[in-house]
Design brief:
six-stranded antiparallel barrel; alpha+beta; 11 helices
Amino acid sequence: MKSDTNTKSAWKIYLFSALIAFAVSYGVIELTKEQTKSTSGVTVVESVPGSRVLYTADNEGNIKPLDFTDTSEKVLDAVVHIKSTQNGTSYGNQGARELPDPFKEFFGDMFKGQSPEGMQSRPRVGTGSGVIINDKGYIVTNNHVIDNADEVEVTLYNNESYKATVIGTDPTTDLALLQIKADNLKTMALVNSDDVEVGEWVLAVGNPLGLNSTVTAGIVSAKARSIHINTDKFAVESFIQTDAAINPGNSGGALVNLDGNLVGINTAIASRTGTYTGYGFAVPSNIVTKVVEDLLKYGNVQRGMLGVTIRTMDSNLAKEKDVDFTKGVWVEQVGEDSGADLAGIEAGDIIVSVNGKETATSPRLQEIIAGKRPGDKVMVTINRNGREKELEVELHNSQGGTDIIKKEKKEVFNLLGADFENLSKDLGKKLDIDGGVQVTKLYPGKIKKETQMREGFIITHIDGKRIKDINDIASLLENKKGGVMLEGVYEDGSKYYYAFGLDS
């Protein structure tokens, strides 16, 4: 009897639920009818509220709708369009970097508009993206976006344009730092990229294919990825891989998390066609932070080095070396008197961690060390013959010492658009020159815009006055107005004069 009562009660509940569902469905249908109208046989919906059908959890476990509108609104103002112009008289397809398939760089970033051989060339224009990182107008982009440019122009999200100054570059990570003089800039904060997780939602923001201020969504597909795209001798590749759509013109743009903070700088794509076919790659924000800090503080990037040749450990390598497999990085060679050598690291050791951070691959080890400077000490855990051992290593610079090699970076040098080094004694003796200053790198600035100077030029006189070191250039030009005459030689002994105006 009790069972019959329970059954009848259950049927009443089911019937009541069915009636409620019917009423709700009917109401929705009628409401939709009211919101639509028919015009020439076409039904037009006047208003449909946006749907949020996916949900995600934040780090505190709070469930919230997965919606990109707030993030997009927050970041668009901080991402800029960059136009690089080269006014030289070069012919052919110079400036293009030949890259191994299937990895192609952003062809939209390369200079275009070359003239046929024998004809005077037109200006070559390339485009890319950049990210404003503080209210002083500093902008991070890729080095290849502005490399070899005579002029760099930055256009904000509101379509205001400014001439940009190149503060510094780092070819080893393919990053560059620009600056514009503007007020009330929207900026983007950088996160600790070590905290970024595979599977996390990210947005790619930039200016692909001439389509300004474009946002695409995806996830972090992998970390510490190397694609062998950077040919610099000391190249550091430990990319964040994403399936967010990235195309030519996105180069230098932002990869952000759902909080609107910078995760990485979009740099390359894996493609057989030159456009998006699945994956893009971004320089992690930790590397970006280190490069920016060094350029602003020292004028160049301070790269700490272990002094080892390495390979990622896998089963094949373990078989080749006849050792038990251990997850980590195999030490192939150790440089004599390098930091690793002095600390006791040997060929055949397997580096398993640095400062407690696991080093499962060579790119990950590179990324961790790239965050350090010469003179920094790191705790390296190695596996040697099956036993782990901790060694303290003092990192060296590229010249084998532990000192910070600071570059003079005065305001006038930014205006000139050049990096300088005091003439070496050996080269001075070879050319029979007592002192001088060599131009080691040219950026967009007065020299590139108004002269045909090439890198390697040795300045011996300015306006007829003898130049012996970098300080002489600074003292002569810092408050200079009007025309300037540079006199000097190239390494082959050929003598040249270059003139330009500082107030033009």
